[in-house]
Amino acid sequence: MTNAATSDLYFVQEPVGEMANLAYLVGSHATREALLVDPAWDVASLLARAERDGMRVVGALATHYHQDHVGGSIFGMSIEGLPRLMELQPMPVHVQAREAEGVRRVTGLSASDFALHEGGDEIALGFGCCTRRGTRPARSVSWSKRRSSRRDSSPATRCS
Description:
By secondary structure, the protein is α/β, with parallel strands linked by helices. It has a domain at 9-119: Ribonuclease Z/Hydroxyacylglutathione hydrolase-like (Metallo-beta-lactamase, Chain A), CATH 3.60.15. Helices cover 18% and strands 36% of the residues. It contains 4 helices and 12 strands. The protein has a 6-stranded mixed beta sheet. Strands 11-10-9-12 form a 4-stranded antiparallel beta sheet, with no helix packed on it. The longest helix has 10 residues, at 43-52. The protein is globular and about 45 Å long.
């Protein structure tokens, strides 16, 4: 376990929605930048939480295309998510390349809203984005803290 007093990691888990989901804010205390992971159900309160913590949300990360994680209609419910986020605060939506079409279909976002990733890609905050191997390799995202210099200013850089 990391000592919160000395860690650069900003990590917040927020319960959201009627399906007992969790959304996350993950970022760096040093840069004051964070990603919003699976922004659904109450997007404004997730952005407000980051603001209260002094963090700037610079991107969203969609772990997979289910409506309770990215917004859309399911089981007779209309769930706000990525479309609402883009209305409130446009930003890149980081998504595993194999999930992008599903996210586009359920949210109505444009392909140009996405920053596509493969397993091992690194998002500019310095946290690695990897997918677990298995029958649905794109459904699971794991994080690892990396100390690396930014090689460019693009939203994502391929790990070597």
